[in-house]
Design goal:
Elements: H1 2-9, H2 19-106, H3 110-118, H4 122-125, H5 128-141, H6 145-158, H7 170-190, H8 197-209, H9 213-235, H10 246-269, H11 275-299, H12 306-326, H13 334-361, H14 375-381, H15 389-407, H16 411-437, H17 464-490, H18 513-542, H19 554-558, H20 569-588, H21 593-613, H22 615-622, H23 630-650, H24 655-674, H25 679-682, H26 686-702, H27 745-753
Biased composition (Acidic residues): 706-738
Protein name: Exocyst component Exo84 C-terminal domain-containing protein
Keywords: Exocytosis, Transport
Length: 769
């Protein structure tokens, strides 16, 4: 009973299938499906292989059949020509038979009839013209073109029926037809792709002998053009491996091919006797040159790379040289090549200088092709100590990229594109100068400078040493590094110059006249930076931070000169600031004495120029409400002479400063004269101002009020010195380059090395304080 109860509780326990059985059933089914799929895939693979094999076999069979069809076509053409020639023979034979039959019918006598019956065609069989035509047909059928040519040539010379303008007879017509067949065979021989030069020349000579010279000449040029194309196609895949030199190989292939073709044409066709042939050679050569230019453009590196510039330079150099070699052969291709190639060279130059602008001004741009180990890096890195390293890096990049461009140029590129290269260097240097000006203090968008919005100056040059370092780098590039690079490219001589044994590379203007004008514009570009620096320096000296003018006309209207006859306080401060700047310049611009003198002379000149153009300054003198004193005019003239003596004493070119000072003095004298003050009676002599200015320099340098008379530092000066300001007019007979004995190296060094503690000039204060 218990078992029956258990069966009732679990009535379906026996119908459950074990999991292991299920797994085995599914596994067996999966394996069967996989095996079936594998078998089907193997069958499919075999079918594909069989189909590929069948296709390959059928393709080979089709190729073989096509070749046989071509051969059969040639044989049919030959057979057709042979049948045609035989048909012509049969027609000539029938015509002869008919003529003989007519003659036989008209002739009297049985004996003659009997003879004719025995041999009805005796004359036809022995007719030499028929024999000749039959012989020609046989030679042409056997493709014996040389023998056929000789036989036909001999027949044409000997047979009167074939000469001149004789009416077209059946014999002449048959002869011309065979001549056309011979021409066709010669043309087919000459047009074979694999024909050698000797076979070609032989076939062309045959065409010339049968009067087909133009066709032969065209085939000759076509042969050399095809041969050149095959050689170039074989060479072009290797252009990428030699991007700098592949134009040299291409130009050699093209121009050597032109030379050979021209020589063969002259030898075979006598171009001198027949200008038509020489004109065709020239036209063909011009097309080949156009093909060369197109190949160089298509296979060169990107136009902005230095390798593209080098490739263009080599191509122009080699091609122009090859053109000169071809000129004795009557081929003048130089002008055509330059006209075709000039736009490409100009494009490459323009894009390379655009790349140069990116490398110089975008400090994040890098160019791995530039050599950082150049001497330029060492020379320009000296300025990095006194200035921002980023700005120095900009100068180094400028010289490296310009040197890289110049190194790619060849002699003939310089000859034909030198002016264009110099113009682009000038434009690049001008932008570089604008970039440096942007780093100087006081720069703003209202200064009239070109915008350089794409480039950001990382730091301004605030201190005098940083600003002088920028000037030194720009001047070194202009005066030393660029001329040295151009001397190598333009193959000019190096001239020694400069003071204290300094050797600088100078451009020989007589050897390259365009360089003289270029150097002048380069100096003008540098003058923008120099003048901007001088103007900002002078403005910072003249105006206080509050914007008040230190150099005020009240100095000459209210103050009374002391008995020491010293210059006014602003000009004493000017002397002090110039001395400070000279000391800094001696350290930063070491070895650049020329630049130091130019800068300091320009600074003194800028002060006087500003004074002469400051209308507010002169308005105070012209205002009748302000009383004028002769002492004020005397002090102003003394200040001007003092400024001139500063330049003379330090060894600067002082004549320009003297001229500007004379303008200021003359204007002041005129104003005072109009206000009723007589300069002749109220002012000391001209020499007094010069001596007083020199004495003031002595006192400021020595720091002693009891300094001896000026003659103590004038021991080497001549008694009569005309290089001073003459009142009221300036002495124009003096030499602008002359300086006094104070304009020596010792005096300049003493000026630059004098300690500021030795100067007893009063502290510089605003005029209104």
């Amino acid at each position: 009973m218990e078992s029956s109860e258990e069966d009732d509780e679990y009535p379906f326990i026996e119908s459950i299938t074990p999991q292991s059985k299920i797994d085995s059933v599914h596994q067996s089914l999966t394996e069967k499906v996989i095996r079936k799929l594998c078998c089907e895939l193997m069958d499919l693979k075999d079918a594909v292989e069989n189909m590929c094999g069948d296709m390959r076999t059928k393709y080979l069979a089709l190729f073989r059949i096509s070749e046989e069809a071509v051969e059969m076509e040639h044989e049919l053409v030959e057979l057709r020509k042979h049948i045609s020639s035989q048909g012509i023979l049969v027609q000539d034979l029938m015509a002869g038979v008919c003529r003989e039959m007519d003659d036989w019918n008209r002739s009297p006598g049985d004996v003659h009839d009997a003879e004719v019956e025995e041999d009805p065609l005796p004359n036809e069989v022995t007719d030499p013209k028929s024999e000749f035509l039959e012989k020609i047909d046989l030679l042409l059928a056997e493709h014996k073109v040389d023998e056929a040519l000789e036989v036909m040539d001999a027949e044409e010379r000997s047979c009167p029926d074939l000469k001149g303008s004789v009416e077209m007879s059946s014999y002449k017509s048959a002869f011309m037809e065979r001549k056309a067949v011979l021409e066709d065979q010669l043309l087919r021989i000459a047009k074979q792709p694999s024909i050698c030069v000797a076979e070609l020349k032989h076939a062309l000579v045959g065409l010339i002998r049968i009067g087909k010279g133009p066709s032969a000449h065209q085939l000759l040029l076509k042969f050399y053009a095809t041969s050149l194309r095959r050689r170039i196609e074989a060479f072009l895949p290797s252009c990428s491996t030699c991007p700098n030199t592949f134009p040299a190989t291409l130009s050699k292939l093209v121009f050597s091919n032109i030379s050979v073709a021209a020589k063969e044409s002259a030898a075979m066709f006598g171009d001198d006797d027949n200008p038509a042939y020489s004109n065709k050679v020239v036209q063909w050569a011009e097309r080949e040159v156009e093909y060369l230019v197109r190949l160089v453009k298509e296979n060169a590196s990107p136009s902005e790379t230095s390798s593209a510039l080098r490739a263009a330079s080599i191509c122009l150099q080699d091609c122009v040289n090859y053109c000169k070699v071809l000129e004795p052969q009557g081929l003048f291709l130089s002008k055509l090549f330059l006209v075709l190639f000039r736009p490409y060279v100009e494009e490459v130059l323009e894009l390379n200088f655009r790349r140069a602008r990116r490398v110089i001004f975008d400090l994040t741009e890098t160019d791995e092709g530039l050599e950082s180990s150049s001497d330029f890096v060492i020379i320009l890195s000296e300025f990095a100590i006194a200035s921002d390293t980023m700005m120095t890096d900009c100068s180094i990049r400028f010289m490296l990229i310009v040197q890289d461009i110049l190194e790619q140029l060849t002699h003939l590129v310089v000859l034909h594109f030198g002016e264009s290269v110099l113009t682009r260097i000038l434009q690049l240097y001008d932008k570089y100068i604008d970039f440096l000006i942007k780093a100087l203090p006081g720069h703003s968008d209202e200064d009239g400078l070109p915008e350089l919005q794409d480039h950001t100056v990382l730091a301004r040059a605030e201190t005098d040493s940083e600003q002088l370092a920028l000037l030194g780098a720009a001047f070194t590039i202009l005066d030393e590094l660029l001329p040295r690079s151009l001397v190598k490219v333009w193959k000019l001589q190096i001239e020694n110059g400069g003071g204290e044994g300094e050797s600088s590379a100078a451009l020989n203007s007589s050897a390259a006249p365009e360089l003289k004008e270029w150097k002048r514009h380069m100096v003008q570009a540098f003058d923008k930076l120099r003048n901007y620096f001088c103007l900002q320096f002078v403005l910072s000296f003249i105006y206080s931070r509050e914007g008040l003018t230190r150099l005020d006309a009240l100095i000459y209207l209210t103050e009374t000169p002391d008995d020491l006859h010293l210059p006014s306080l602003p000009f004493q401060a000017l002397f002090s600031k110039l001395q400070q700047l000279a000391i800094i310049a001696g350290d930063v611009l070491l070895g650049k004495e020329k630049l130091q003198k130019i800068l300091l002379a320009r600074l003194t000149e800028t002060v006087i120029i500003w004074l002469s153009n400051e209308q507010e300054f002169w308005s105070a003198f012209e205002d009748e409400s302000n009383p004028l004193q002769p002492s004020g005019l005397q002090q102003l003239i003394l200040d001007m002479n003092f400024t001139v003596e500063i330049a003379r004493f330090a060894g600067y070119p002082f004549k320009v400063v003297q001229n500007h000072a004379s303008v200021v003095i003359n204007r002041a004298i005129n104003i005072f004269s109009e206000r009723g003050i007589n300069p002749q009676s109220s002012l000391p002599k001209t020499e007094w101002f010069t001596e007083a200015a020199k004495s003031a320099i002595n006192r400021l340098l020595m720091g002693s009020e009891d300094a001896s008379e000026p003659e103590e530092y004038e021991c080497e000066e001549e008694e009569e010195d005309d290089d001073h300001i003459v009142l009221p007019e300036m002495d124009e007979d003096s030499d602008s380059e002359d300086t006094s004995s104070l304009s020596t190296v010792e005096s300049f060094e003493s000026f630059a090395s004098a300690s500021m503690a030795d100067l007893e000039s009063p502290s510089f204060t605003d005029s209104e304080s």
